[in-house]
Amino acid sequence: MDTRSKILTPAEAARLAGPVALATGHFDVLRAAHVRVLDELRRRAGGARLLAVVLPAPDEVLPQQARAELVAALRVIDYVVIADAAEADRLADSLKPVEIVRLAAADALRARELKEHVHSRQT
User: Fold this and answer.
1) β-sheet with 7-8: strand ranges across
2) Any idea where the domains of the chain sit in the sequence?
3) Is the pLDDT reported for residue 111 higher than 80?
4) CA atoms of 80 and 120, how far apart (whole Å)
5) What are the tens digits of pLDDT across the range 3-47?
6) CATH architecture for segment(s) 3-122
7) 82 pairs with which residues across the strands?
8) Which residues does residue 53 pair with via DSSP β-bridges, in sequence order?
9) How far apart are CA 41 and CA 53, in angstroms?
């Protein structure tokens, strides 16, 4: 299965029917912590489909499209949208998700920690 078919436009995602749980974040770089959070969200959301919104990342390591493809490859994810923060907010307003998890702040912290770790190993 080509998991890129799980990537929707914001307009396509806005038409999803039924309960949806929403996770927004940069997912740059995708880490095990992301999978743990998404698994927990899936468990709490019961039968709701899990939609991940991949946001632009400051000083990104990977382009937004590549990050979306990685997130789409996760079994726990039903759909992925590439969007900015305003589009993500509009999507949340229209879908009325059963739960929203916003990972941008945690993603920024993880990215900074990873960069610091790499820099410390180079000296």
Assistant:
1) 7-8, 79-82, 49-54, 20-25, 99-102
2) 3-122
3) no
4) 34
5) 889 999 999 999 998 899 999 999 988 889 899 999 999 999 998
6) 3-Layer(aba) Sandwich (3.40)
7) 54
8) 24, 81
9) 14
Residues 6+ apart with CB under 8 A from 6: 72, 77, 78, 79, 80
Query: pTM value?
Result: 0.89
- The span from the CA of 2 to the CA of 73, in Å, is 9
Q: How far is CA 37 from CA 54, 81, 85, in A?
A: 15, 18, 20
Tokens representing 80 are 């992925």
Cβ of 27: how many Cβ atoms within 10 Å? 28
What does the DSSP assignment read for the chain? --GGGGEE-HHHHHT--S-EEEEEE--TT--HHHHHHHHHHHHHTTTPEEEEEE---TT-SS-HHHHHHHHHTSTT-SEEEE--HHHHHHHHHHH--SEEEE-HHHHHHHHHHHHHHHHHHH-
Strand partners, 50: 21
CA proximity to 26, closest of 93, 114, 118, 119: 114
